[in-house]
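For practice. Any example?
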Amino acid sequence: MKPQFEAIDALLAAARKEAELPPAEQRRALREALELSRAQVARALGVSPSTVGGWEAGRDPAGDVRERYAYFLKGAQAKLADLDAARQAETAAHTDLPQAGPATSGGDAARAAEQPGTADQPYPAPEADDVEDLGVPRPCVLCGQPARHQVAGFPQHLDPAACAPQPAPPATAVPASRPSRPAAPVRTTSVARRVRAVSDLPDPIAEVVAAALARHEGDVEAATAALVKRAIPDAMALLDNCRKGGRYTIVAHPWIPDILRKPSARGADRIWEARPKWTRPELPSGTHQVTALDINGAYLSALKTHLPIGQLEHSTGNHHDRRRAGVHLITPPAWEHGAYLPNPIGNRDEPGPLWVTEPTLRLLLRLSGPKYGLCEPPQIHESFTSGATESLLEKFRIALKDARERALAEGDEVTLEYVKAMYSKFVSTMGESNYNRELYRPDWMHLIRSQAFANLWMKAHKAHDEGLTVVRAMGTDELHVIGTWRRVFPEGRGVFEVKVKDVYTVGAAPADPAAAQEADDEN
């Protein structure tokens, strides 16, 4: 055969139809029903956790990785079908009772009381052979709290009254009526993960720190350097772990409008983050002691902000929907209080409209309201927004905050530096950065930074409102004040506390006028 035909035959042999994939909403349900994290699936498929998240949000893989993903999903469906069939068979065996006659005897009544769906016992009582004692308590599949027994291989409380009260789930999450038999793994596991607190999860931060110290034989400096170096991928892994069972899927690589893209690699961002750089133009007469306060964990606190969940959508008009978040083109109001408070939009020389973030807009709207009445409302021209929630990164923030507080209590500087690197680098690299390929959300980066600036502005306003003299407000965490600041801000290293950065004197008495004149004459 001629070489050309051999090449054609080889090409035809390699050609194949792409493997079919289930709809995006089923992909995540299959993974969660088997209690698998995105990180676990990603490792098996040779991709990143955020890539798996993208597939579960609607993107489709291609090539060999599509074949592997289709194989996993098909196997997951078969596994769940087997588990459900086995559960139904066991339940049918346990609830297969004789037919009741027209009259009901005392024994029949007792058996009838054990049937599913009654008010006193919503689930059938387990047979003794199915109950096993657990040496180590495991989370109950119904309520997520520690249980000491398992029934048919599933940890749960034998007495329904022992189950901790569950918060009301969303209307679309579970059926309106209670099932007449123990829920299948697809449902019970997802409910258990929703009610499980962060404190019930393993502590990956402590485990990683302990491993680093062991690897470097207790060398604190070497372990800290190694941990800081791996802070970005570790932060992404922690985020993925904290998102298990979450109500919202993080879209890691959405379509981004041009306004959120830099004109060039070294060009300036076109989103105005309202970074404060303000100094009081005139101080009170006399000599004063100024205390420079350092606001702890500014970016960590700023993770609690309204973040857009999905792809940003364009809209026009002077209207703000508090259920959405994003970036907005506004004409800011005039600010007439610069003599004692910084402008909420920061130091801006150019007049006219500018693109601001959700935290800046919400701050301006708040200050224009009846409670403060400090300015007119901003005028909104157009927006790029998406449905939003303030709790999207809440478990992630709490996990980092708890680790930081434990490190402070134990004097653990290694963990302290590691946690600081995790949240600061997480924020700084989620935009156009080569150091974090798993998450590309420049909108989030701008919003979180702006939230830190808005938080600092509110602290400056609190200081002023409590009678302190605000001298300077800089960046995310620097506030200079005159007065007894400890009655306003608690001192310490906690997230909700401040620490002293510097103390200096302003308004010193002038030098002797005669000496000053003599010095001028000599010059």
In short: The two ends are 100 Å apart (CA to CA).
